[in-house]
Amino acid sequence: MKHLRSPKVFYGIYIGIIFAFFYLPIAVTMFFSFNSSKSLTHFTGFSLRWYVNLITDREIVDAVWVSISIAILATLISTILGTLTSIGISKCRRIIRELLMNINNVPMMNPDIVTAIGFMILFSSLQIPKGYYTMLLAHITFCTPYVITSVYPKIKTLDPNLADAAMDLGATPFQALYMVLLPMLKEGIFAGALLAFTMSFDDFLISYFVTGNGVSNISIIVYNMTKRTNPTINALSVIVILVIFLTMFVVRFVPYLINKKKKGRNHI
Fold first, then answer.
1. I need a labelling partner for 155 at 20 to 30 A (CA). Which of 14, 138, 215, 225 fits?
2. Quick check: 47 and 33 in contact, CB under 8 A?
3. What is the C-alpha to C-alpha distance for residues 239 and 3, in angstroms, rounded to an integer?
4. What angle, 0 to 180 degrees and rounded to 10, lies between the N-to-C axes of helices 232-267 and 218-225?
């Protein structure tokens, strides 16, 4: 019995250390976001002054709006493009499918600095003023491959004749897409949308190279804050953590609750 228990104890301690390594810095950041002083290492008392400063700082409020709006728009557009592209790729011949999927993997395997410099040179050569819209275009571009990677494996598990069967029964191509294919792909679509939102909301390097004067997202503001002692960075980091956590919660548990409610109604 002791021989069986010791590995379990070891694995438990190991997992505890790993989780502490991952989440202890986040816990420290959240703790010092309520510090009453400017110290980033010494806690002097509980206060919400940095959250108040966060709300009243116009530059930070604008950066939050830019991050959220671009993340939502990039997620919506890249999810639509990625889903439709995945369906289109699934209809191609095998050799073309493999070629297109390999091409799709290139942006994800590229270092961010290479992608960022490429976007910067592209926008400069086309004489496109860098700002909000160039950041949005860049985010859509690098988020779409992640959506394709999430949706395409789900499409491969479906019967390729489902859409044809629906159209044989009188459905239009749009109805076959909306009423047959998309409901079966919803798990992959949700996963791709969550990944796209997280990648967009958290991006710094590409955003830094494609933005212009007066347009900054949260990551750029945080980077600028690191150049000087500003405890508002802790409060801002907590807000970012909460947004990502709530997004994961909604995407993970809301569909589960909806399906559970439907099963309850069917049972009645």
1. 138
2. no
3. 46
4. 150
- Do 74 and 145 meet the contact criterion of CB atoms below 8 Å apart? no
DSSP state of 177: I
Q: Give dist(CA 143, CA 136) in Å, integer.
A: 10
Residue for token pair 């799709």: 104
- C-beta neighbour count of 59 within 10 angstroms: 11
Maximum CA extent, the chain: 72
* The model's pTM: 0.79
Digit-coded pLDDT (tens) for 158-210: 877 777 787 777 777 778 777 888 888 888 888 888 889 888 988 889 999 99
| Model pLDDT, residue 148 | 93
- For position 191, what pLDDT does the model report? 85
Least confident of 17-21, 87-91, 181-185, 252-256: 252-256
For residue 267, what are its two tokens?
Answer: 């049972």
Classified as helix, coil or strand, 29 is helix
Report the half-sphere exposure of 114 (CA within 13 A, side-chain side): 6
